[in-house]
Design a protein that fits this description.
With 245 residues, the protein is an alpha/beta fold. The protein contains ten helices and seven strands. It has a single domain (21-244), classed as Rossmann fold. It has helices at residues 2-11, 24-28, 35-38, 41-44, 46-52, 70-79, 91-107, 154-164, 183-190, 195-205, and strands at residues 60-64, 84-89, 111-115, 128-134, 165-176, 208-213, 238-244.
């Protein structure tokens, strides 16, 4: 959809055409969404986040480490029948989320599941208009035998992603703010990441940071706390970035 809009603009510069924004509010308002998803809306602010990230009708979307599929469902509904969402999970997480996905897939026809280790993701060239890392980019620095997550090199993953994104495609990143330091050690301890590391990684891969939103910032958050600590879970200080290829 983004590529078509760009071609139309180039062909007719006096009457530029823009892709239609995805109907995010309607997707969030659907009454058949799981109760577990509804509980997350207030803390995640999906309408505001996806609007800021410029999700568009008809987009081909990659939901990286989609988990239980909260955002996969919203984006699939929002992009409409001409759009599609590929929801990627590593094998350890895919097995744990399987039951929830059965019901989700029954409701939403334009979602496909991809089960793969991060560095082996079978992403096709120029396949996606939009990709989302919702509080999971730090997991590229995480190694967990318990969850069958081998050591990953983020640079290699971002090379795969860059090739898979279409020109002008958006990569949306929402992340828990962590302190500077040894990235892998910080991720292991508290599941956070220094925002400067995120920006540097994406810049090195060739992406441009187009905009940042304060939507999910929380100055009261203690960046040394584990994100699963009941005192802060769901209200951590989070950055919201829009990167563009």
């Amino acid at each position: 959809m983004r590529l078509l809009a760009a071609l139309l603009i180039a062909a007719a510069p006096l009457t530029p055409a823009f892709a239609k924004p995805a109907d995010i509010a309607a997707a969030v308002a659907m009454t058949d969404r799981p109760a577990e998803d509804l509980k997350l809306d207030a803390g995640r602010k999906p309408v505001e986040v996806l609007t800021f990230e410029r999700l568009e009708e008809g987009d081909r979307v990659l939901d990286w480490m989609a988990g239980q599929g909260y955002y996969s469902e919203l984006m699939a509904r929002a992009v409409g029948p001409k759009g599609h969402v590929d929801a990627l999970n590593p094998p350890g997480l895919a097995g744990r989320a399987a039951d929830g996905w059965k019901a989700r897939m029954a409701r939403i026809p334009n979602i496909s599941l991809i089960t793969t280790y991060f560095a082996q993701a079978p992403l096709k060239h120029n396949a996606y208009d939009f990709a989302l890392f919702n509080i999971v980019y730090h997991d590229l620095y995480w190694t967990s035998p318990k969850y069958d997550l081998p050591r990953t090199e983020p640079r290699a993953v971002l090379r795969l992603l860059y090739d898979a994104m279409r020109a002008g495609g958006v990569v949306a990143v929402v992340e828990h703010v962590g302190a500077p330091g040894d990235t892998r050690a910080i991720v292991e301890a508290v599941h956070r990441i220094d925002p400067e590391t995120v920006k540097a990684d994406f810049a090195r891969a060739g992406f441009r940071l187009e905009a940042e939103s304060p939507l999910l910032r929380n100055p009261a958050d203690d960046h040394t706390k584990l994100v699963f600590d009941p005192a802060i879970r769901g209200t951590t200080d989070r950055v919201v970035y829009r990167f563009v290829k």
